[in-house]
Design a protein that fits this description.
Length: about 450
Amino acid sequence: MKDKNIKWLYEELPGLISKGILTQETAQEIKKYYGEPEERNWLRIMLAIFGTLGSILIGSGIILIFAKNWDALSVPARTVLSFTPLIISQVLGIYVILKKRDSMAWKEGVSTFIILAVGAAISLVGQTYNISGDRTVFTLTWMLLIAPLVYIFDAFTPALFYLIGITFWAGFEQSDGGYAVLYWGLLAILIPYIIKAFRNIESNRSVMLLWALSLNLCVSIGIVLEKVLPGLWIVIYSSFFAVLYLLEKAFINKNHSIDRMPFNVVGTIGILVVSILLTFRGFWDHVGWLMYRHEARFNDLAGIVDYILVAILLSAAVYLFIRNLKTKNAFTQIFGFAAILSAICYMAAALIQDGSIPVILYNIYIFALGLSTIVNGIRKKHMGITNGGMLIISALIIVRFFDTEMSFLLKGLSFIAVGIGFIISNAVLIKKQKEVSLDEKAY
């Protein structure tokens, strides 16, 4: 239930108790069930944003001032100046911990300042004393040094910066011919903080962190995979998005607005995008163990992490799918089936070395997704969901327009059919909404 609805309900409770409709105990049980609605203090959020931006500008300005006269300074002077922002930021950090621990603006701003000061100190000291290193070592050192800030300040900015930083590190490592399996170890440092955010989903910072995490993983998984087994990304990404989609369905049984459901939104979009891509035959060419990559740039040992990732994500997706079967929600089950379908299709394509069967199955799957979304929208009398289902089917027709040898007559008829579907479904919904309105007035 939305916070504003919870507030309204709580305002009604005293009246309901006085009229004998509810007992005091029942009212307490209701409050215990819904919890306290979070006050969205936009002033605090804006202060935190401007505080963070201010810290970034101040830190960047100090570094630029140093850079202007850097070559003219002696080594001791450079060393002192390298550590000065770091010392100032540390003093401010201690002040925030002791005096401003409840201020989101202070915590976000000062932690950002410390992040920049740490990065500047590493690079300036390295330059002054000609310490050898590259972007990979620099990024890894920087991220490891700022990781404790996430827990010390309980702030969103250090966590976001850390997520972005370790993704860049993984990209640098892969592009330099290394192996980025350490990424998962670096991500594990954040797990306690992520679990805390998932349990406290009502908090704005928790929601922002989960948005950042789910979007970050969409990118980083593709970077980190060793790709020794061609096409394994199909199962990994399908399972990942299915887990995201089902996770919130299974463990957060509240009707939040879309902006407060990051896993569900990213999972839904991810399932749709990956499934539409997999309707193209080209993605199924040369996949499976018969096409195993033995070239020197692929590492068999690092590839084991890919298999572990498949096992974990696919097992989690299957578990959540089976758990969701108890709800008998066909709409959720069809979306949650993405991981199982990807595994079946991958096995089929790998065994027969032909993508015909997976392509057919994924075309049927996309159609089923669109149809189930339309049915779900009509049942809920929700025009947006219904039109979303029509858009899914339209997307399928459009990609087939460019992909197959379908005749222009058939393509034209398909577009006309979908267009008529749009009009009819919206007309039906509008009629139902009018009937509901009339019934409410009559009541």
